[in-house]
Amino acid sequence: xxxxxxxxxxxxxxxxxxxxxxxxPGLDYADSAMEAVEGADATVLVTEWPEFVALDWSAVARAxxxxxxVDGRNALDAEAVxxxxxxxxxxxxxxxxxxxxxxxxxxGRGHDGSATSGSATEGSVAAASxxxxx
Length: 134
Prior knowledge:
Elements: E1 8-12, H1 17-23, E2 28-29, H2 33-37, E3 42-45, H3 50-53, H4 57-63, E4 68-71, H5 78-83, E5 87-90, E6 93-94, H6 100-103, E7 114-115, E8 125-129
């Protein structure tokens, strides 16, 4: 659906990447979660796998252009994500109170039209970009 809206989706799935490439050929596949989030405005987690849950959220914040982390499994430590300067949104609940600047989307490294979104496979994190040159 994101692709239909002009979003370039970048995903990572260390186990099912080959099968995912066949099922979703329009996605850009990264080799790691950190590669997937590079330059993204938002990150969507759709797995509870330890390698994704235990990401260094300060490093993720430095790699992203934006600051939104959507936790599709409510698997993340919302306070740790927020402490890294990221805006946490759990499916069905929000994380700790965010400063007004972060709520409005300020923070990160600025807006360049990129975004991150999870793929339909069970153990994935993904990223995307929109706009000129995508």
